[in-house]
User: Fold these one by one.
Assistant:
Number 1:
Amino acid sequence: MTYQAFYRVYRPQSFREMSGQTHVKRTLQNALTANKTTHAYLFSGPRGTGKTSTAKIFAKALNCEKAPTNEPCNECPTCLSITEGSHPDVIEFDAASNSRVEEMRDIIEKVRFAPANARFKVYIIDEVHMLSTSAFNALLKTLEEPPPHAVFILATTEPHKLPATIISRCQRFDFKRLSSNDILERMKIILEDIDLPFEEQALKVIAQAAAGGMRDALSLLDQVVSFSGDTLTLDNALLVSGSIGQDVFYNVVGALKDKEIAQVLTSIEGLIADGKDPLRLAEDLITFFRDLLLLQTSSELEELLELVTPEEKFLQLAHEFSADTLYRYIDILAKTQQEMRFSHHTKIYLETALLKMAQVPNSGAAVSQNTASIDPELNDKVANLERLVHQLSQQIQDGVQVQNNVQHQKEAPRPRVKSQSGYNAPTGRIREVLKGATKQDIHQIKNAWAQSLSQLQKSQSALLAEAEPVAASNSAFVVKFKYDIHCRMVAENRELISMFSQILSQITGTMYEILCIPENEWITLRQNFIRENGLNQKKDASEQDDGIGISETVNEQPFIDDVQEIASEDPLVTEAEKIFGKDFVEIVED
């Protein structure tokens, strides 16, 4: 008999022999035991993770003569013929080479016939995403309502290429990449079966190179076994797989720690000259730094190590780097690795990354020394600052106590009024605007108001239709809203606020900050501000004084337009405002 590859000879023949995929095995076994199997299954996942093998095991368990059972017996004629691939009722269909609608129609025509000598007729369609659109459409109705004796198992590595109508008619099982431990245990069973001594570190190298695929691991193992002699050694595994030993990485990282960049680049140059792929080198360096982080974190994580063995020199090397430095190294290499995938000059990218890593400061072992040798003068300065802070805190407490006793009403915090819509107006910021508000600024805003609204969308300008600017400084202005809900919607719409400010700035030449407040809150805040700042008293005093300073304050008070609007109720003005609108009526005093 001709030689067969390991992945064919040691293909699992029962759920018990499968590596990993516990969630898939348990679900299928429970369905078999309870006799609750369905008519269509979708197995998706990376290559070499056991999709087709699981489909064959499931087909054997369905048709086993000892059914219902959660494991095929692999002894009855049905199980043996399915294992050999000669059973007439278990049909394997390769969609990659039979993607046309004619092949699918042939299956559909035969599916209605009862199985020859089994309980179920099982169709295993591999690489189902390769079917044409017409073939999918032909399969659709049969897949939804097949005969009671038919079971479809679809396997694919690219489930995103399947139509949603196909996926929705199947029970979907996502196969995951196998862990290094699962692959390691399977390879140990094979090597023990062929009675070949091995070094465990060599198997770790093969498992890492397989990247979670059992078939890739067994193919590589087959190659290493053929290359090796009486023993499967680490050197043989490194040579065949193209991987690099931990000692090489130890020397490279040690030189990187000592900032000996010439030695680092020389080592990398030698590895690439020996045929190592720069992209693979970057990936292995990431894994090496990840192992150093694990050694740094806990000694109980040794089983998770992939490149490094828990030797004393690697433990010492791990503690010579700070965790932040290792994270920076991994981040630089990960970004470089993404850039290398789209370039033909991968060596240059890797060398640039190593130069960048050499410039990352390492604060690993120096932290304790720095903290131990603190400058005595710095200690004195810190003590003086602490003493001053304590004195100032005491004075502030005493001052606050006096002010609370003498001017309690004046310094009492004002509770922020909350409107019915749940919006809190920025009263503190509005008061700051009122302190610097001028008549010239509010007139400039009002003159540009109508033109600015016309440049907004209708839905946006509708929110500002019942709003009005009432006070403005040289950097911000206050908008009074008739309805609380409109005020909240505008204030919370940052995009509208930003757009409206930019439109106003194009007209006025100034970028204003917009502050929104409901009308009822505005009236209360305006009255309190006038009373607290004694603006009415200053106005009375200005009539008796010579008008220097005080009169200027009165003329520039922020409510000049608002006060006139409330105080003057001229019927002509009121009628004109009703006809033309407030924005187009201007009162000129002779």
Number 2:
Amino acid sequence: MHTADAIVIGAGHNGLVAANLLADEGWDVVVLEEQPGPGGALRTEEITAPGFRSDLCAAFFPLGAASPVLDGLDLAEHGLRWLHAPDALAHVFPDDRCAVLSRDLDRTAESVARFAPGDEQSWRGLFQQWQGLREEFLDALFTPFPPVRAGTRLLRRTGTAEAVRLARMLTLPARRFARERFDGEGARLLLSGNAAHSDLSVDNAGSAVFGWLLGMLAQDVGFPVPEGGAGELVAVLVRRLESKGGSVHCGVPVTEVLVAAGKAVGVRCADGEPIRARKAVLADVPAPALYGELVAPEWLPSRLLADLKVFEWDSATVKVDWALSGPIPWTAQEAHGAGTVHLGCDETGLSAFGAALARDEVPEQPFLLLGQMTTADASRSPAGTEAVWAYTHVPRGRDRATVQRQAERVEAAVEHNAPGFRDLILARHVQGPEELAGHDANLVGGAINAGTTAIHQELFFRPVPGLGRSDTPVDRLFLAGATAHPGGAVHGGPGANAARAALARDHLLGSGYAAVIRAANRAVYG
């Protein structure tokens, strides 16, 4: 393991996607992971009780199921199987009303109509709009910013007038957009709740498009899970890579990216061993870690380092996993069949939740995302039982006592809508920011979405104002982690963009590709 065409730092799903795409082109690829096993935020373990398999971080994958990146890898041929709960999502109100989002359009329409009869047709119209621009929109989403070609195709498909309306939606707060489209609180909360699911305040400009995207994906592909757990998606990516000749080495921390004459030429591992990269180094690590720790400052523009000091991370996360002796006894019967449940807040509560976090305050009434994993995949726990998790957010930098108090509020919120829930608990496991970051270095301070709460970073400037590409100021070094465009969630976009940039650099070197990138970096960073 002294040399390879490409070295990938980090065996999270983005690093593994990048490695697979390079291996498909015949490159000799080595993936180095500091943790004992691959996966990063995609890991499944028995952390509550024997026989109960919990996803440590990510669990449901609407963007993964819709991702053209993952679809292009034909992962089903290597053993990936998506499973679905009867319904994708339920939003349970504090007063026990419930709105359901199902892959069955008629069921969703019937649910929102119970809150306002006219919302049935409004929801159908919104989904029809999605169907008309789905492919072009997803291509634009996964293309490095600015998405010139994909954006042109989207404009041709929609026409100028509809494109202008879509552009307006990019600027709207989710709560405002939902109120413009729907009269009833059911449909409005299905959209606003999904914006909050994306870690955005429902009153923030630009949050509407994320609520709309997740809502339409839930209607389209659902909120699926890999059979056996999130870790199975990683296992499939590893098997596919190894079948192409690539290799993954765990327990091998990288301490330095080796640079010579402005080019990345390899890495140095914690044991001091250097490994040479003949063509490229790809880093599935947070941008501040790459530029602040792995690459020596003398190779980086001072303006880039200054920009990174103001990179905004998400709020911290508090997650509780439970092993239950039976299904959650929801008072709202519609919630029983949902894989994902939103609860704890109505429209006003969602606004208050986001405002508290913006003020750096711990929300007294948390908004919860809850996963009924056995409902979605019967293999997750013994027959008749349920493996469940829920998480919420707190401001960054809070102590362990705050984490424990908020975990208690999480449990109380479930009990409020499901009296008798606590009586079913066989075991529980609480994770705060420290534990989550321990699973995956990309989850800095418990930030599970790599900066989505800063909308300017999510839409345009990841990780800092610049090219919107995975290319870096160091030639042959590419950023492949979730702090690169198009950001967090499990879809493989950052890894794919980094691999494609590395391949383009290799193929087009004679046309001056590296010189063009250097010139562009000079224009941005001085």
Number 3:
Amino acid sequence: MKRFFTLLMLISLTWITTAAAQDTVSVDLSDFVQVKNASAPVISPDGKYLAYTVSWGIVSDTESEYHSQIWVADTEGNWNRQFTRGEKSAGNPAFSPDGKYLSFTANRGESTQLYRIPLNGGEAEAITNIETGVQDYKWSPDGSRIAFTSTDAESEASKEKAKAKEDVTVVGEEVRYARIYVQEIGDEPLEHSAKAVYSEDMHAQDFSWSPDGETLVFSHRETPMLDDGDTGAISTVPADSGTVTALVDMGGADHSPVYTKDGEQIVFLSDGDQPEPIGQTDAYVIPAAGGEAQALAHTFDRNIRSVYVGDESDAVYVTEGRKTLAAMYKLPLDGGEPEMIHSNDAYYSFSDAPTAGITAFTMQMGGQYEEVYVSKGRRFNPVQISNFEDEYVFPEMPKVETITWTSTDGMEIEGLLIYPVGYEKGKQYPLFLNVHGGPGGVYSNTFLGTGAFYNAAFFAHKGYAILKPNPRGSSAYGKEFRYANFQDLGEGDYQDIMTGVDEVIERGIAHPDSLVMAGWSYGGYMAARIATKTDRFKAISMGAGLFNLESMFVTTDVIDYGLGLMGGGYWESEELKQLFADLSPHTRVDEVTTPVQLLHSSNDQRVPASQSYEMYQVLKRMEVPTELVLYPRSGHGPSEPKLSVDVGQRVLEWFEEYLER
């Protein structure tokens, strides 16, 4: 703890500024990753308390890791304090139904286990002791049990082969399923008698208790493979273990089932009657005893992220993106129209339904630090609970503006424009075009003062204007918009992006001869596409980008998503073979003249690092300026604070090397 407060002092000293010195402030990317971020607030059953997770990066000469602990506060805003401590992170807080305990997950041994601690203070006690650790968990309604999911342990045969150095892998031969377990709980010391509630080979995902505690409803798919997530079904099973009863199998991915308050119905999310890999998630309701599922009213984006049960039996609550913001809706079970339960002037993040008349959430905007809030009663009235911003003296946050423009085919496009710190009207600045991943990602109006990955505040302090466009294919703008780049990757969205660049130039903000660009994942694909289609940019940084679509979409761990965007595999028809060639950057690489930096994580399964290797080798032989940087111990993006800082710093240095200013 002493070390942590020393870090906070260093951050504050780095960021202490005066108005007169604001334009010369030294902004270090490592400062941004060490700022606390609050998330996932949950309300106690009696509405008196809330718990939430706080995470931050730890950076020192020998350390580079993300850490999290749990805070507890009263909902009147009188006090707010750290509840868990230690060298190991804690997260996923939940209150016991009687309000006596707070539970959480932590890896304090060889795997992540579930713990509880008395709310009035005391030592944490492990609830579970299962070899492969705990994933998701939920208390039973009466608090006497906890259900959780855990993955099958490695077979004894596999362990013996590993000892004998005979551990060859046959893909798909040994499948390790996630299963649901139930653990009995009392006030006495626990015996860790977790019991699997079914024996069938099915990969469990989301689950929920019935209000009487007799039954569990859960979604499942055939294997743990991510691609099998495009289909799925929902079943029920007695909580004391027994026969699995099929409930829903509509054809697409059926998931996230929850019982209504009265237990009479089950609400779930689904693609519908067929897989929709590009994204379509609507809410449905079905009698708990079985029957025909009925669709509920469509939400704005038709891409619901989560569903929660509140105090009513005639409605549930759902969350999803809404353009550059986010929304929670109250969704009537009779098919009535969804009702947004909050204002739409900030970015709200909800992690549960209103409980005991109280809604808990975090709120933030581009220049406003993310804090925890509650709102009581029927009228939405945020009351701030946390005050982490008081621990820091932030540098000046740049001005953020949501702008719209018209693409070449008349489609309206939206994005975020971040102004350089110290912006002077009439002066033109270098423009950093930053394209998001996905393509179903979206740029939201969230606080700019945290994180290091393409940190907009950092680049704004370095004199850049930043454009973060949401081109066709982005989520949060409705299904039609999300599907608008089907079989058109890097074409219509390229026009959306470039007309956005032109818009910023026409506003007199960006200098037309000082354009740079970076993006990760699908943003990296757009970096490669832009490099093959225009020479307007002085420098480009491609992060985990797609270079060869033929190899990419059969080596990624989300093959069905990629092939869904293309309408099938290149081997299926001459038309599809030609489409892959037309949309793949590698077939136009001879057009590249712009210096291209290539950043990738060594262990990336989403976009294999071979994509960057391939482009690097070609550009080298073409004598186009390039460099390839590989990040260790990481999957689809650097997973440690220092590595994230390195990305931002390298991108800046690459831009500065080729910009003429």
Number 4:
Amino acid sequence: MIRNYVKISLRNLIRNQAFSAINIAGLALGMASSLLIFLWIQDELRIGTHYPNAAHLYRVMEHEITDGQIVTDDNTPGILADELKKQFPEVVYAAGFSGGEDHVLSVGDKVARQSGCFVGTDWLTMYSIPLVAGSVKTALNSPTSLVISKKLAEIYFGNAQAALGKSIRFDNRNDYQVTAVFENQPAHSPDQYDFLLNWEGYLKREPWLNKWDNYGPGTRLQLRADADPNRLNAKLKTFLKGRNKDIGPNFNIEMFLQPETEAFLYSNFKNGHRDGGRIDYVRLFIIVAVFVLFIACINFMNLATARSVKRAREVGVRKVVGAERSSLIGQFMGEAMLLTTLSLGLAVGLVMLVLPVFNQLTEKHLALPVDQPVFWAALVGLLIGTGGVAGSYPALFLSSLNPVRVLKGALRFGASAQLFRRGLVVFQFVLSMLLISGTVVIYQQLRYIQTKNLGYDRENLISIPSEGEIAQKFMLFKAELLQSPGIQAVSSMQTNPLYNGNTTESVSWTGKDPSAVISFNNTAVGYDFAKTLNVKFIRGRDFSPDFRTDSTNYLINEAAARRMGYKDPVGQPLTFWNKPGKIVGLIENFHFNSLHDPIKPLIIRLANRPFGNILIRTQPGQTKQALASIEALYQKLNPKFPFTYSFVDTEYEKLYRSETVVGTLSTLFAVLAIFIACLGLFGLAAFMAEQRTKEIGVRKVLGASVSSIVTLLSQDFLKLVLIAIVIASPLAWYAMNRWLQGFAYKIDIDWWVFALTGLLSVGIALLTVSFQSIKAALMNPVKSLRSE
């Protein structure tokens, strides 16, 4: 019997090639989209979870309670790790961590900028970093120890074994000895680095980190397997209370632990509570995958139902000769599973074909994990789930047909069946419109971000690191650059113009409440700072070499002036880090952090030497010429360091790379969803036209025009689309409004977004239905009425 069913299924596939092709293509596209999203989500979920001890690894986080608000981050004192290990028996290993910095490593004439970290001696053990040369016990024991990746060992020395014991020059200042070589970090590791340096050496290099009231690096812990992190959290809450006496009695920082397995996905905190992060995008794409797959399944149902009249007599004959309903359900479900299996094979092929492009788009290294049982389990689940959902309604519907009515040729469907099919179409278009309107809003927000005035001009602005001899020769470098063609202004800035994480509470002014703890962002700049960034002064002036006292004077932004209560702050006293001075300039607010965050109070001081970044503004249209001048002069004054630069506007776009990827993927999946939904609408149009063939014939005999018949057949579908618009619009507004809450600066969702979505949906529906409507309207009424 099964063999007979297979034969019948194959014959139907071959006999109805167009119908089969549409069905297979729709399901294949839906499943391919779901597979791509599955691979992306799997990669996101495994970040930070691949370590053998992942279940016992934690990051130390801090709630900083200032100015009535709670700011959460992972900045801790540099001496915290060793102290926690001493004080708490639950802590097996502890290590400080300062990463994400590029440094110049040189061996002879091999000079290159590499990314590395300073870490505690327990780091390699905690994270089970595999070594290809050297010993874990001695790898980071000395302040001059250097552990490098296998990749760096091959670049500088040829292989890992040859690297052991060799010296590498670090930033042309110190020589470090290679004590171990580790395997290259996997792409899904949350901490990416090519070398590691000893923590004690870092504390000597940055002595300010040896105080309890200074925060900057991170701290990682590994707890005992039987330790209760909640009990340790209770102890950590007040751990810093007595160790911050220099700041004052109202200073309050509460520490807590965040599992390493959650750190990547749950990175956002709002007023002391976890508030999403990358997990929001994971949830979003789970919803998108379900939407697209449901639309594909509904498409299958509608197409199968549209062809049901062709199979009705077959069902009637089978029932007359004794076939039970259960066997008929099995037959049609088998056919659905056969189509789904073919679609799944095509989907896997599509995924393999587009995966390189998908990887480039998402900046990942995804591959089909054919060696993992979970992948095959996912494929089987996708096959059974899709086949079961797609084939269930057609199987139940066809098996329920009355054989007497079918064999008499009186096949008509009741109101409940029609309502169900129309409900499927409404559901399809609701899902499709949610994706379309979401894509429009995401595009608008990204466009808003890209074009928003940040308060300074990021165009034609170049940033280069201030390092090596260029810092000592900065005045000469600046003077010669200003004489070069294409250079408009030169200055320096301690922090990146796009990101300033430096904060302090050590600020006082006239009228300040002595019990208040208020946090200010701060940075140090060189002369011509305002001219180089093109920030605007409301009152006062920029720092100038004509005023010797500027070394203790300050600039503030509008947010700082409001927080201090100054209406006219210029000339008012201000004490910063116990250094009294005066405010000499009030500048307009400008964005020095992500648009996810509001502009915060900022204090700017004059740097006694350039450090951090050198900022260079070029003349519009002369960037290429200016870069050549900058590189030539840089290599002349700083020959031991490679010349590297970045455009501030390009770096700005990178800040919102995640949102850009989400927008692009949403657009692609929205287009796929609409295409698949149109296939379903096409199927339902064919079904309804087939059901009303004789009605159309009678109308034509009575004189109905082609246009009136097309209108008659189309208006039912337009009603369904209008219902979908009414349902989808408030749902889309709610969902996108929730997404926009993650931005401090955002667009307003305009009514026309939903009007545009509705018009697109109506237009697409009309185009899809019109083919079948016109075909039915042009049919010869003699043929349609002949059976009567």
